[in-house]
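Sample 3 of the quickstart, ligand zinc ion:
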Amino acid sequence: MRKLIKSGTIVTAADTYIGDILIDNGLIAMIGIGLNANDAEIVDASGCYVFPGGVDPHTHLDMPFGGTVTRDDFESGTIAAAFGGTTTIVDFCLTAKGKPLADAVQTWHAKSGDKAVIDYGFHLMVSEVTDDVLLELPRIIEEEGITSLKVFMAYKNVLQADDGTLYRMLQVAKEQGALVMVHAENGDVIDYLIREALAAGNTAPIYHALTRPAVLEGEATGRAAALTELADSQLYVVHVTCAEAVWKIAEARKKGLRVYGETCPQYLVLDQTDLEKPDFEGAKYVWSPPLREKWNQQVLWDALWNGQLQAVGSDQCSFDFKGQKELGIDDFSKIPNGGPTIEDRFSLLYSEGVHKGRLSINKFVDIIATAGAKLFGLFPQKGTIAIGSDADIVIFDPSVERTLSAETHHMKVDYNAFEGMQVFGEPVSVLVRGEFVIRDRAFVGKPGSGRYLHRRRFGDAEKQAVKKPPAGGSG
Ligand SMILES: NC(=O)NCCC(=O)O
Ligand SMILES: [Zn+2]
Ligand SMILES: [Zn+2]
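Result:
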C-alpha cells in the first residue's frame, strides 16, 4: 500500500521545509505541500523532523576479534540500528590470509542474509597482496559491488598490513574505482610500547591509551595520505580521534588530494579519563585508536563543521563486559577492542551536535547519512529524501528528552558506553524502502527483510552526471 507522510519538517543536507512525502513501491514518488492520495495510508509527522535514514559506513557485526566474537550479530545489530534511526550499514567483511576473498564474502552473506532488518553492504578488509588477491579483487568489486577496501596499519601480527600492501591497494583502488579505508596507527611502535608497559607491570586499561599516543595516529595518517598522493588514489581514514590526525587530513585536502575522514560518537563525547574508571570498568572504553584527552573533542566537532572530516560512523564492535572485556583483566592488551555504538550514533549526533548548536541541522544530515552514501556509492538511492530515492525515512521527535542506558537499549551487549547520558530527540518511526521497521517506538520489522547493496564504484556518480547525451538526441 502507498503511504503518505504528512506535515513533517523534511530535512536534507541542503534544505529544511514542511511538506508531505508520497511513498509508492518502496520509493519516494512525490514531495509537495498539501498532497492527497485516496488509496494511501496516512502517517502524521506533524511536530517531527523527517530525516533520511541514517547511513552508518562502519560496523562490525558477528565479527571474530581478540579471541572472541562480537556480541551483536546482523539481527540484534540491525534491529538496534533501526531503533536508532539507521537504515543502511556497510559492514566489514574479514578476509583470511591465504584463503580466497570470495570465501569471506560468502561467509558474510551467510551471516547477514536471513538476519538483517535494514539494508547493508560490505567493505572488504585486505591484509596481504598476493597474485591470487590481485586476480580476485576486480571480480569481487564488479560482481559483489564491494567498492571499498580496508587496510589496517595497526594490530601487529594479526590484521596489520605493511606499507607496500597499502600502496598496492591504493593502486588497485585507482584502477578499479574503489575507495581505500585505513585504520591509521603505527602498529610497529605501538607493539613495542605495549611490550614495554607490560614488562613494567602496567596492566590496567588506561595503559591501552598510554601505549597508543596520538602522535602515532597522526604519523600513520600522514603516511597513508602520502602514499595516496603517490598512487594518485583515494583514501578514507576511519575513526579519527585526535588533532594530530585531523591536521594531516586537512593538509592533504588543502593540497587537493582525495582524502576523507570519519570520526565516531565515542570520540566526540567520551575521553581518556573513562579508561581510569575503577574495578576494571575502564575496559568498557577500550577502542583503537583510544579515547583521547578531552580537548580533542572540540577539534573533531570543528573538523566536522568545516568539512575536514566528512562522516560519523559508529564503529559498532560490541563485547560484553562480563566474560569478554574481562579477557584482559590481567593484561590490557587482551581486552577486545570496540564498543556498542550503532544504536546511539544518530541521536547522539543530533543531541550533542544540533541541539547544542555545534552543527546545523542540514550538516547533521550530511554527516549522518548523505556523505556516507556519496562516498560509498549509494547516493541518491540512499542518504537523502528525493524523488526516486529509496523511502528510507526517520520520523524524529525533537521534543523528547531521554537517558541512554543498557536497561533500555536494543543491542545484546551487557553495558551501554554512554550510560546515563541525557539526549534530546528520538526516532519514533523508521521506514526502510517504504516499510515500517520501527513504528511508534516498537519493532515491527522482519529478520531477512534487509537487502544486500551492490554499490557503485568511487566517482561513478560524478561521471554519470556529466555524461553527454547521445549524438542527435534531445538531451
Ligand atoms: N575500533 C575498535 O576498537 N574496534 C573495532 C575494530 C577496528 O575498527 O579497529
Ligand atoms: Zn579500526
Ligand atoms: Zn572498526
